[in-house]
Design goal:
With 446 residues, the protein is α/β, with parallel strands linked by helices. 35% of the residues lie in helices and 22% in strands.
Length: 446
């Protein structure tokens, strides 16, 4: 019996361990940190041996294959030892796809992944299809392959999850856009990060589809460097495309094969330029999957936005509080600021991932009245924006509750207090979700 070791005991790793167990492998799971009780309980239920608080090297290094959770960098000493001895290392999605015959719609990109994934899942569900949602969102893909049966999967896939894929192949691959993000994980080399994203296309066949933003310079530039067999379906807000989606007058036009469908822009549930791109990608994927126009039309207008992405929390004393905690990079924060129509008190900061704030300066000048820093080290934010908003209008805080109180003091009637951190959350919070929930709780207790 082949021995499989899973590194990492959270959603991805536990799902992979369960699937390995179901498929008859000898499985062991090892986590360098502590495993949450809900995951430990699942491992015990499935009778999967595990350890936490450190790795037993002799148990890990004897594996025939290792499934590495996406949060563990390839530079980790134990991973380096596995590489040196020639042990095959795969990601959860690579492992799970070996046992899955369902059609897969897979979405990656720097921004818009979660919204686009959730929207496509909603469209397919509304069309009555038997569809699972997974990857970097919701339940582990491997756990669903082990315990459920779906005809379709809509999977949000991060570059970290793509890093250890070899044979994984979507039927429809989508890259929403590519902007600098996670460069700390890719040796601060943009080319490495772009290549990681494009791994989603590496096994596409002529009958598969590649949906991409043809207004995104980095995506288009990289496309010219590779040979793709798949059907290309671009979406654009700047030009008409022969196949894909574009804007004509007050409508979104979708062309797939010989058909052309129109959807009124004003009826789309998601507003803002960035969300129009997400709606375009989703509509193309739905058309390719055979969803009828009426269902697409109805679903695009009834979809509810996702938590922590430009989520209106409350209006207090004429001040609107918006939770955009999912904005963990410069580009996401740019979109959040760009779509604001009221003066902004901006809560920003966290664990910097090599951010260049230059692109935000014109928007800050135009829209931001005051800045509340929410991070352990806010020096880069001060350096970038203090001259624009003035030293008296920038303040440091170290908790969500403190940030909300200080923002409320800066804000006057008609303002928006926008949490759009531009950074990862791990200096003060467990995750961007934790940061968003603490922000919302603080707003509600004002």
């Amino acid at each position: 019996m082949n021995k499989i070791v899973v590194l990492g005991g959270a959603e991805s790793g536990v799902g992979a361990a369960v699937l390995a167990k179901v498929k008859g492998f000898d499985v062991f799971l090892s986590d360098n940190g502590s495993i949450k009780e809900e995951y430990a309980k699942t491992l015990r239920q499935w009778d999967i041996p595990f350890e936490q608080g450190g790795h037993s090297e002799e148990k890990v290094l004897c594996a025939d294959e290792v499934i590495k959770s996406p949060g563990i960098p390839s530079t980790a000493p134990l991973v380096q030892k596995l590489v040196q001895q020639g042990t095959h290392i795969v990601s959860e999605i690579e492992f799970a796809s070996r046992y899955d015959k369902a059609k897969k719609i897979c979405i990656t990109g720097s921004n818009g992944k979660t919204t686009t994934t959730s929207l496509i899942h909603y469209l397919l569900k509304e069309a009555g299809l038997n569809v699972g949602l997974g990857g970097n969102i919701g339940k582990s893909y491997a756990l669903q392959v082990a315990t459920e049966q779906h005809d379709y999967y809509v999977l949000e896939i991060s570059s970290f999850q793509l890093d250890d894929t070899y044979d994984f192949r979507p039927d429809i691959a989508i890259i929403t856009n590519i902007t600098p993000d996670h460069l700390d994980r890719y040796d601060h080399d943009m080319e490495n990060y772009v290549r990681a994203k494009f791994k989603i296309t590496q096994n596409l066949r002529p009958e598969d589809c590649f949906i991409f933003d043809s207004d995104d310079a980095i995506t288009v530039e990289h496309l010219s460097k590779i040979v793709l067999k798949a059907k290309m379906l671009p979406f654009s807000q700047e030009k008409e495309v022969e196949q894909g989606a574009f804007v004509r007058d007050d409508k979104m036009v979708v062309r797939v094969d010989k058909g052309e469908s129109e959807f009124f822009l004003e009826s789309l549930a998601l507003s803002g330029r960035h969300n129009l791109y997400n709606s375009m990608a989703a509509a193309i994927a739905a058309k390719v999957s055979g969803v009828r126009d009426e269902v697409i039309r109805e679903s695009l207008s009834s979809f509810k936005g996702i938590e922590h992405r430009l989520e209106n929390v409350l209006s207090i004393g004429g001040v609107l509080y918006v939770n955009d905690s999912k904005a963990t990079n410069v580009d996401a924060a740019w979109y959040a600021l760009e779509c604001q129509t009221r003066p902004v008190v901006w809560i920003v900061g966290g664990k910097d991932k090599g951010n260049d704030y230059e692109v935000l300066k014109p928007l800050v000048e135009k829209k931001v009245r005051a800045i509340v820093c929410l991070g352990v080290d806010n020096s880069k934010i001060h350096a970038a924006f203090e001259d624009i908003v003035g030293a008296q209008n920038i303040s440091d805080t170290h908790s969500a509750a403190e940030a909300v109180k200080v923002a409320a003091a800066f804000a006057t009637k008609g303002d928006v207090v926008l949490l759009s951190p531009c950074c990862a959350s791990f200096d003060l919070f467990q995750s961007y979700e934790d940061r968003g929930r603490q922000f919302k709780a603080a707003v509600r207790s004002l």
